[in-house]
Specification:
This is Putative Zn-dependent protease. Pfam families: Peptidase_M48, TPR_16. The chain is mainly alpha-helical and about 450 residues long. It has a domain of about 220 residues. About 70% of the residues lie in helices and about 5% in strands. Helix 2 crosses helix 4 and helix 18 runs parallel beside helix 20. The chain is globular, with a radius of gyration of 26 Å.
Length: about 450
């Protein structure tokens, strides 16, 4: 399913969620809270590529059996962070990284945090810091009270300073701990890259980017009041290790670089201005990536009729690329040709080695929009197959509800709508539709039980 179906607002209109120079991690609670409201991007092509980047790193880090997920965030800053068993990567990081190796270095760093259980340790450090701050405040309050009782203003003033000093000390200790963990994650990343036979140059390029951005901003930063080492410090810590690697000058395979460029072209087309793709690939304006971005931009900002021959030319060059057919399907949907779109999505699904749930749901949706009663069972089958692999994707249930409605299965439509609201976080609406569904479903059937589960569900405690 193309980014157009997921992104409801251009990235340039979104507020920046995280600061540019923060390739690291957030405290568990804060990261989880943000993950509930972050503008998440879903795209089969990008998810497949980033998963390929991550697979060897997660394996050598001992994380491949822990069900680590990579989540794409629609934000144009260069950033990534972890939360639980998830690695969040901004689309801005993917767009700005000129080579796969730069993104792989970021994933290696975040994997270092996960493998080192840094989140759990950070939570323990936060609890200690809170205890230190409370003790400092209590001591300060005691000194202030004693000064007031004796009429000694200097003692009372010292008490206030003691309270503030305790809080400041706790904060500095916590930030110092975080900086240490960042350095540890950097070194772990170097180890993972070395074990997988990949270059560490991408990490240095990333830190150089941060250093240059900080210099251009003109900001004066207190190094003791930030959670990450200064970029120049990180470069200095890693340079000797990085250059000692026999893989330092190793380049990414050409085929992987092309996939990376195609990804960047897609992100630029969907999240930036119309001319962003041309600027991104100004050194190779007739390359495949530039033409891919142009085809998508034409379809988004111009006409589907003009975009179709552009994507068809790319399909002729790479007839087994499933994502070219996926974009062709999106173009045909915009051209009000759902039957043609269904054929394109069917071809994309057949070629897709990962059998993406998003592409299968797009196929089912196109069949549903085509309106043929004979094709509706296939539409439902494809939508349910996609949902089975991606059960927390609300739009899949929305399409399924529409398909059931066209088939006259009102109970199924009501239950799918209940699931759509449930996975969107709208529990009250989910319960209303679940109760409506139960009135039309056979009591005790799997669908009836599912509706009952929604009715009995409670909001998670904060």
């Amino acid at each position: 399913m193309g980014l157009a179906a997921i992104l409801h607002r251009p990235a340039r209109k979104l507020a920046t969620v995280l600061t540019t120079a923060t390739v690291g991690f957030l405290p568990l609670g804060e990261a989880f809270a943000q993950s509930r409201s972050l503008p998440i991007v879903r795209d089969a092509e990008i998810e497949a590529l980033v998963s390929d980047y991550a697979a060897p790193i997660l394996k050598v880090a001992g994380l491949n059996s822990r069900g680590i997920r990579i989540i794409l965030v629609n934000n144009n800053s260069f950033n990534a962070f972890v939360d639980g068993r998830r690695i969040f990567i901004n689309t801005g990081a993917l767009l700005q990284a000129e080579t796969p190796n730069e993104v792989i270095g970021v994933i290696a760093h975040e994997s270092g945090h996960l493998a080192g259980a840094h989140q759990q340790r950070l939570r323990e450090q936060m609890e200690r810091a809170q205890t230190m701050a409370v003790i400092g405040m209590l001591l300060g309050m005691g000194a202030t009270a004693a000064g007031a009782a004796t009429g000694n203003s200097s003692v009372a003033g010292a008490g206030g300073g003691l309270a503030l000093g305790g809080t400041e000390m706790a904060m500095r200790n916590l930030l110092s701990y975080q900086r240490t963990e960042e350095i540890t994650a950097d070194r772990s990343a170097v180890t993972y890259l070395e074990k997988t036979g990949q270059s560490t140059k991408g990490m240095l390029v990333t830190f150089e980017r941060f250093a240059n951005a900080l210099s251009l901003s003109g900001a004066r930063v207190d190094p003791y009041r930030i959670s990450h080492p200064m970029p120049r410090e990180r470069i200095a810590n890693l340079q000797t290790l990085a250059h000692a690697s026999p893989n330092f000058d190793k380049k990414d395979p050409e085929a992987l670089q092309l996939r990376h460029d195609l990804m960047r072209a897609k992100i630029a087309a969907y999240t930036s201005s119309a001319g962003s793709t041309a600027r991104t690939f100004r050194n190779n304006p007739r390359g495949m990536a530039a033409r891919y971005g142009d085809a998508i931009s034409t379809f988004l900002n111009g006409s589907a009729k003009a975009a179709l021959p552009k994507i068809d030319a790319l399909i002729k060059e790479q007839p087994n690329n499933p994502y070219f057919y996926e974009i062709r399907g999106e173009i045909l949907l915009k051209a009000n040709d759902p039957a043609g779109a269904a054929k394109a999505f069917q071809r994309a699904s057949a070629l897709d080695p990962r059998k993406s749930s998003l592409i299968r749901m797009s196929y089912g949706r196109a069949l549903m929009l085509a309106g043929s009663k004979s094709a509706m069972p296939t539409a439902v089958r494809e939508l349910k197959a996609g949902i089975a692999r991606d059960p927390d994707f609300p739009q899949g249930y929305q399409y399924l509800a529409q398909a059931y409605g066209q088939m006259g299965d009102i109970g199924g439509a009501e239950l799918a709508t209940a699931d759509m609201h449930y996975y969107s976080g709208n529990l009250q609406e989910a319960k209303i539709f679940a109760m409506r569904a139960q009135q039309k479903l056979k009591r005790g059937s799997p669908d009836w039980v599912r509706a009952q589960d929604i009715i009995n569900s409670k909001k998670p405690s904060k």
